[in-house]
Amino acid sequence: MNLESFVEVQPHSHFPIQNLPYGVFKPESGSEARPGVAIGDYVLDLSVIASAGLFDGPLLNDTDCFNQTNLNKFLGMGRPAWKEARAAIQKLLSATQPTLRDNEGLKRKALLPMDKVEMLLPIAIGDYTDFFASLHHAKNCGTIFRGPENPIPPNWFHLPIAYHGRASSVVISGTDIVRPRGQGHPSGNSPPYFGPSRKMDFELEMAAVVGPGNELGNPIDVNKAKNHIFGLVLMNDWSARDIQAWEYVPLGPFLGKSFGTTVSPWIVTLDALEPFACDVPKQSPHPLPYLAEKFSTNYDISLEVRIKPTGEEHTYVVTKSNFKHLYWTLSQQLAHHTVNGCNLRPGDIFGTGTISGPEPESYGCLLELTWNGTKPLSLGGATHTFLEDGDEVIFTGCCKGSGYNVGFGTCSGKILPSPK
What we know:
Layout: E1 22-26, E2 34-39, E3 42-45, H1 46-51, H2 72-76, H3 79-93, H4 98-101, H5 104-110, E4 111-113, E5 118-120, E6 128-131, H6 135-146, E7 162-164, E8 170-172, E9 177-178, E10 181-184, E11 193-196, E12 200-201, E13 204-210, E14 229-236, E15 239-240, H7 241-247, E16 261-263, E17 268-269, H8 270-273, E18 277-278, E19 298-299, E20 302-308, E21 316-322, H9 330-338, E22 349-351, H10 366-369, E23 377-379, E24 382-384, E25 392-400, E26 405-416
Parallel strand pairs: 6-22, 8-16, 9-26
Antiparallel strand pairs: 1-2, 1-5, 2-3, 3-4, 6-7, 10-11, 12-15, 13-14, 13-22, 14-16, 14-17, 18-19, 20-21, 20-25, 23-24, 25-26
């Protein structure tokens, strides 16, 4: 039976009743932030629903998790509470259920036009980790910087490589990104270059949002890892390629990454993504036992990147990729993250790394698309190698169901000039 909502949902909408992603919003300027769920062109205010006593299940009937300014408390309650909430919200929004449908006063308070509210970061992010989980991206980067003979180091096929990112500079979609300044490679015998980055890039990623964490010293089993992952967001892990190339030996990325990371406002739950589970690429050699899953799945999420050049109204598609191309799964990333006893906490996020596919049009960053600036892109007659001041980058992601979509909305940001 195809579930339908009494809220009108357009056929192209990312937010039908089959999705119900979570976010945090303010109804108007100066009001208190509160959790909500997207349905069509509306936001369902969960604080109103909770105050009306409509979460009456055993796990949610006596909690203030939806009267918080972020989702962290709800995330920490775990999968049983998430499933209870999803079932209650789906029932409440269904076309056959009169409780909210026929209560005009409650409907006015609880269902707010999405274009009238202010979306905020939905979680308080304690820590942020960025993985390097795409085989095609790893191969392309290795070929660009080290040549085609041995582009991928041998350890890459044995463990999901990652680095610790900067949580303080994770921002919500729509936030402008200031071009960073830093050092770049010296030219000849000159001192290193210092100034605004000359190679500003986007990175097409997704990020997993951690639910219940683990105690320090207590790893998470790879086959139980999904119980610790609430859902996914789109993520643009902006990169200053010239700064990164000069600084990353021997300890890895620092200033070339920490200036800004953009995430989409809606967290799509793993439950909503389950119908789109798909096989993972063959892993060879076979992973070590702590990374060997009984059932390995990726998700068939179509991803697209558009660039709106400075001064133009038109946007240009530069990338079409898919989450299913990832070599290392979310569960493997989480299990590896904690195998040394590292403790994760509700609201932590970990990025997948750039999601590139096998074809040139599916490469997930300008470094690959322009082959480090040697093959410029044509955008409306003008050529681009890396991002220019005023350029806006827009990510979208969507799963195609039978007569409906499960989507992530957009993740966007514009590059502003470096301060003088």
